[in-house]
Design brief:
Elements lengths: L2 E6 L15 H16 L9 E6 L7 E3 L5 H9 L9 H12 L3 H4 L16 E7 L4 E3 L2 E3 L24 E8 L22 H8 L3 E4 L2 H13 L4 E9 L28 E7 L36 E5 L14 E5 L3 H9 L5 E5 L14 E5 L6 E5 L4 H13 L7 H12 L6 H11 L15 H23 L12 E2 L13 H11 L17 E2 L23 H13 L24 H7 L54 H9 L13 E3 L3 E3 L21 H24 L8
Parallel strand pairs: 1-2, 1-4, 4-7, 7-8, 9-11
Antiparallel strand pairs: 2-3, 5-6, 9-10, 10-12, 11-13, 12-15, 13-14, 14-15, 16-17, 18-19
């Protein structure tokens, strides 16, 4: 799982503009987004972890750490602002401490027990800066200095702040402010000449001097290819140079070899690739790289180790040794002058043994733990890591299987015991596992000793517990904003603990200017207000444009001075230096930051009675329960069923008439003239009682021939019909007062 940490320069110099009109900080944000887009094309990017660190003071410099997701990372990246100093050294130290936060807990470094290349957290630290002078609160610095004091427990066990699986790459922006008329030069991107270049080379990375947008895109594509799982090792030559090789591949002693002149391949600081297992996706290994000291029970503490182990190689040609079933580790070397020199010799059947100084007990150089060998196709150089002092062990194991048939005699056991005395204690457990895999008998005691004293082991356990507490503290501070200072604190130089407002001269001057007096002595608490804080005299001050100092009346000088101080220090959010329009102006970078606005809003009030169910809107009818079950739009219609529908005698049941009645409301319907009934006895006359609807429970009103009373008769009749229908449907007693 590669870790990609972006260190963005947020100093004030990042606000400078390029010929495109964008600031350096905007270019840095766009570069990070483009890098993530290029990286997403690789299927292996699903396991990437992204972190974001700025040049702010720790711990506020950590914007996205171990627990933040990708959305938080992008949000913090978008909201970055350039205002501060170029504290590159402190920012690098904070970045490395963040990466090393959990290493002591997980045991990746394995202090005092050898270095395991297959226990790693490959990390790429990419910093984007403008390469200007390094500034701090103490002044301008000419060289890059990393703080030696670190709050992380266990940092004293390693001399450098970084580890061998962490590399630093720098994108130094040198884009001009004016468009260049000269044609752009194509080719590789050169390294920058700033102070960060040397730091990049020490960690195994490099810097890029970016002068155009095309060069920036080229650098990002190169950085995507640099994401490899591996560790950095210092390879140094020991002994004389090898004899030159002729064109036929044989040694040519007639050709002179200069063993004293320094060659580029004599010392290389390069990466070895640690490939993950194809089945599990996790690197698998068996043998460590030995420590540069012999662990002893008498050691009071562990000596600090270098971040990158120094592996010395001898140029004496040897035959590569391998036996069946004995596991070994194979790592490919990154292309370098050393690999180029070995491949040019065209000797794939010989190897050079590798050592670690002071790793043995009786030998200063130590015993070989592996060898460098070119591949049979002469395409790369591999580092083979074998058991410690393998030239002695492999013949013994070969005799055990082929001669003694897994039944060793006394002479063989004595030779094997003498070999174990030259073996560092931390090699006993891997060797025992390897012999078990080979099917050999139990030749090593079960009571293994790691070689460390009890005090050292207790110290490492104590450091692990302290690291957990420090890790929780740092992770809790991730994403917090630095506190904003309000106003200027002015120290009291009177020495008596009395405020400036107690002075008679000051009160007299204040009374002459503004016509007001200072607070009385009895109203002030001298213990609480030993000094005073500059604030606003009048909180209702409105923004004003810049004015001529001579146009300000004398009585308004103090208010104007206070306003100017507030504009300079920005201690009041309602006063802006230019005009009223600036109150409503928002920078483009902050227009989409709606989350910060939501944080300032007050929390909504709770409901008065949250247990009471909310009442649905019933459109004026308090007894209406379900719109689907009952749809009464008119007084004379109900669609619940045909058995509840009341019809007038002689009324046609056509759908056209029902639609016409549904579309007309009772209150809006014009009063109709009662139909004239033909009386076959007396001719035309008033309507008979048979025309009225027959209801057994209703008292039929007396018919009156006047017009107004006739209309009231019909209205009261229709209301009675409505109430009867509602009683039949809802089963409720309705009371209505006319």
């Amino acid at each position: 799982m590669p870790i990609l940490l972006f260190l963005i320069d947020t100093s004030a110099s990042m606000n400078q503009r390029t010929d495109l009109g964008t600031s350096y900080l905007d270019i840095a944000k766009g570069a990070v987004e483009l890098f993530l887009k290029l990286r997403s094309r690789d299927p292996a990017s699903r396991g990437d972890r992204y972190m974001l660190v700025t040049y702010d003071e720790p711990p506020y410099c950590i914007k996205a750490g171990w627990k933040e997701n990708h959305a938080t990372f992008m949000s913090e990246l978008k909201n970055l602002q350039a205002s501060g100093l170029t504290t590159l050294g402190q920012a690098l130290r904070s970045s490395f401490d963040l990466l090393n936060l959990n290493r002591l807990i997980s045991g990746i470094d394995n202090y005092g027990q050898g270095r395991n290349p297959f226990f790693l957290e490959p990390s790429i630290l990419i910093t984007i800066t403008d390469g200007n002078k390094l500034t701090s609160t103490a002044g301008v610095q000419e060289e890059l200095h990393l703080p030696l004091n670190s709050p992380l427990p266990g940092s004293e066990l390693t001399k450098e702040p970084f580890r061998w699986d962490q590399r630093l790459f720098a994108l130094v922006l040198r884009l001009p402010g004016l468009a260049s008329t000269e044609p752009e030069q194509l080719g590789s991107v050169p390294t920058d000449e700033s102070a960060i270049t040397q730091m990049c080379e020490v960690t195994g990375g490099r810097s890029y001097c970016v002068r155009t947008q095309r060069m920036l895109n080229q650098c990002l594509e190169s950085l995507v290819q640099k994401i490899q799982s591996g560790v950095v090792i210092n390879f140094e030559k020991t002994g004389p140079d090898p004899l030159p090789v002729g064109e036929d591949g044989l040694m040519d002693s007639s050709r002179p070899s200069n063993s004293f002149a320094a060659q580029p391949w004599h010392s290389c600081h390069k990466l070895i690739y640690v490939r993950p297992n194809s089945k599990t996706g996790v690197p698998v290994g068996h043998w460590p790289i030995p420590e540069s000291f012999w662990p002893d029970q008498n050691l009071p503490s562990l000596p600090p180790r270098t971040s990158h182990p120094v592996v010395r190689f001898s140029c004496v040609d040897c035959e590569p040794m391998v036996i069946d079933k004995l596991p070994f580790d194979k790592y490919e070397l990154e292309p370098s002058p050393l690999t180029q020199y070995i491949l040019e010799r065209k000797s794939p059947h010989t190897c050079w043994q590798v050592f670690v100084t002071s790793s043995g007990k009786y030998n200063e150089l130590g015993y070989p733990f592996g060898y460098l060998k070119a591949s049979t196709t002469l395409t790369c150089v591999n580092l083979f890591v074998m058991p410690y002092n393998y030239p002695v062990l492999l013949p013994l194991l070969d005799d055990l299987f082929k001669v003694h048939k897994l039944k060793p005699n006394l002479k063989w056991r004595q030779a094997f015991d003498s070999y174990l005395k030259t073996l560092p204690p931390y090699y006993l457990l891997p060797l025992k596992k390897a012999l078990r895999m080979m099917g050999a008998p139990n030749l090593i005691s079960d009571n293994l000793d790691c070689g460390l004293s009890y005090s050292v082991i207790s110290y490492l356990k104590k450091l692990s517990q302290q690291t957990k507490l420090e890790s929780e503290r740092i992770l809790a501070s991730v994403g917090k904003k630095p506190p904003q200072e309000i106003g200027i604190r002015v120290k009291n130089h009177s020495g008596g603990g009395v405020s400036l407002t107690h002075s008679k001269n000051f009160r007299k001057l204040l009374k002459e200017i503004i016509g007001e007096t200072a607070p009385r002595l009895a109203e002030l608490n001298t213990k609480e207000f030993a000094g005073f804080q500059v604030g606003l005299l009048n909180k209702d001050l409105k923004p004003q444009t810049y004015r001529n100092a001579y146009d300000i009346p004398r009585r308004g000088l103090l208010d104007q001075l206070t306003r100017m101080r507030s504009n300079l220090l920005k201690t009041h959010k309602f006063i802006v230096g230019q005009d009223e329009d600036s109150l409503h102006s928002v920078p483009v970078a902050q227009m989409g930051n709606y989350q910060e606005y939501l944080k300032t809003l007050a929390s909504p009030l709770r409901e008065i009675d949250p247990d009471q169910p909310k009442r649905l809107h019933t459109f004026g009818n308090p007894f209406k329960q379900d719109k689907k079950g009952m749809m009464i739009d008119e007084a004379d219609e109900f669609v619940a069923g045909p058995q509840n529908k009341v019809k007038r005698p002689g009324e046609a049941t056509s759908p056209l008439s029902s639609k016409r009645r549904r579309s007309m409301s009772l209150l809006l319907r014009k009063p109709q003239t009662p139909p004239t009934v033909t009386n076959h006895v007396g001719g035309k006359g008033p309507p008979s009682a048979s025309w009225l609807p027959s209801y057994p429970n209703l008292i039929k009103p007396t018919l009156v021939h006047t017009g107004i009373e006739y209309c009231c008769f019909y209205i009261s009749l229709e209301y009675e019909r409505i109430f009867i229908l509602l009683e039949e449907v809802q089963g409720r007693d309705l009371f209505f007062f006319f």
